[in-house]
Design a protein that fits this description.
Number of strands: 12
Bound molecules: pyridoxal-5'-phosphate
Shape: globular
Strand content: 5-15%
Radius of gyration: 22 Å
Largest sheet: 7 strands, mixed
Order of helices and strands: HHHEHEHEHEHEEEEEHHHHEEHHHEH
Helix content: 40-55%
Strand order of the largest sheet: 1-9-8-5-4-2-3
Length: 397
């Protein structure tokens, strides 16, 4: 039987396939219940444990667990003293929070277009965007595939800039033998509900810079010189000092309870996703209207998303119409991303306009993210393949 015959005979899926539900096991549930019963639910021993295990996993000296990656990116900018008059370079092909935090800090976001092959920021464009006001670069490892960190690191060193990696998609990603989280001065992870390691909501900064790690910790909790755990732990002194007006970004133990077990399963998660990606490739690679995501040439792909590109020149439907047709086959899908510079706020307040970042715009019109999550069965993957094949064959030019 040819691939086409195999999938064309497959009946339509009966129930809607979700896009990306979390994979929560009994260990996570037991650990959360243990926190709830322990009398200590906010930042405490489980957060400390999660931080230690995260630092050890990525190979960083320090990890600071927080309530989101957005908080982490913002804190890095604040800890570096970045503010009005400064510029920070990042990509337009990201979630809005990567750019929002630069505005929150009072600095100017400068965008550098991405590359077509991996959707990641183009080091040549970064080089063109650097000015005397540039202070930092925030590369985003799209879908879990590492940016070209050697070139970005070299540019940063040459111009005395700090690299803050947005690794929201990239837990477990490796680049030239090193884990993401151990490469640049700061790396920020997200543990939002859809991420490969989730705490419901959550994030973390990893760094090798001990003085900065301490500043970030103080800044993350009101500017206090001791957090609650360090004040209320047996034998500790209750009084504290405020060193600066800080923020309220700490992670709770209830979240860390999830994170500890999610992190311990991350290698298994990556193996499962590798198998799903291989099944997608086997079932979709002969479709001329599709380009599938490639493995990373420089190390392990973190496999957070499965983004395919539609060849619109070979189709009679747009990407949005293709998504609707998939929905009719009971398959959810998503878009990563609508480019940040085309959202109203950025157009109206920062002067961005269509055409500014042509590669990001080109990708954004064509990209379709297929369902991709640990608990997908082979049947689920085959349902997606059959639906995608049907939509592509029924709508090609
Ligand atoms: C690339 C990227 N950066 C930053 C964030 C923000 O993460 P969080 O929701 O943990 O603040 C996300 C979240 O989806 C993201 O995808």
């Amino acid at each position: 039987m040819t691939t086409d015959e195999k999938y064309l005979k497959r009946p339509k899926r009966q129930t809607m396939l979700s896009f990306c539900p979390p994979d929560i096991g009994q260990e996570e549930i037991d650990e959360v219940v243990d926190s709830l019963r322990s009398g200590w639910i906010t930042t405490g021993p489980k957060t400390v444990k999660f931080e230690q295990e995260l630092a050890a996993y990525v190979g960083a000296k320090h990890a600071l667990a927080l309530n989101s990656a957005t908080a982490g990116l913002f804190l890095c900018l604040k800890a570096l003293g970045i503010g009005p008059g400064d510029e920070v370079i990042t990509t337009p092909y990201t979630f809005a929070s990567t750019v929002n935090v630069i505005l929150h800090a009072g600095a100017r976001p400068v965008l550098a277009d991405v590359k077509k092959d991996d959707f990641n920021i183009d080091p040549d464009r970064i080089a063109q965007a650097i000015t005397s006001k540039t202070r930092a670069i925030i590369p985003v490892h799209y879908a879990g595939r590492s940016c070209d960190m050697d070139r970005i690191g070299a540019l940063a060193q040459k111009h005395n800039l700090t690299v803050i990696e947005d690794a929201a998609h990239a837990i477990g990603t490796e680049y030239r033998g090193k884990k993401t989280g151990s490469i640049s001065r700061f790396t920020v992870f997200s543990f939002h509900a859809v991420k490969n390691v989730t705490t419901g909501e959550g994030g973390a900064i990893t760094t090798g810079d001990t003085a900065m790690a301490e500043s970030l910790r103080v800044l993350s909790l009101h500017g206090m010189n001791k957090d609650a755990w360090r004040r209320y732990a047996p034998g500790a002194k209750v009084k504290y000092d405020i060193l600066q007006p800080g923020y309220k970004y700490n992670m709770m133990d209830i979240q860390a309870a999830l994170g500890i077990h999610q992190l311990r399963k991350v290698e298994r998660t990556l193996e499962k996703r590798k198998a799903i990606a291989a099944r997608y490739r086997a079932g979709l690679s002969d479709i001329p209207e599709l380009t599938l995501p490639e493995d990373a040439p420089d190390g392990r792909h973190g496999r957070h998303l499965y983004p395919v590109l539609l060849d619109l020149e070979k189709l009679t439907v747009s990407r949005d119409q293709a998504m609707e047709l998939l929905q009719r086959e009971n398959i959810s899908s998503n878009i990563h991303y609508q480019p940040v510079h085309l959202f109203s706020y950025y157009r109206e307040n920062l002067g961005f306009k269509p055409g500014d970042f042509p590669v990001a715009e080109w990708l954004s019109e064509r990209e379709l993210t297929l369902p991709f999550y640990n608990r997908m069965t082979e049947e689920d993957v085959d349902d997606v393949i059959a639906a995608v094949r049907k939509v592509m064959t029924e709508n090609h030019t």
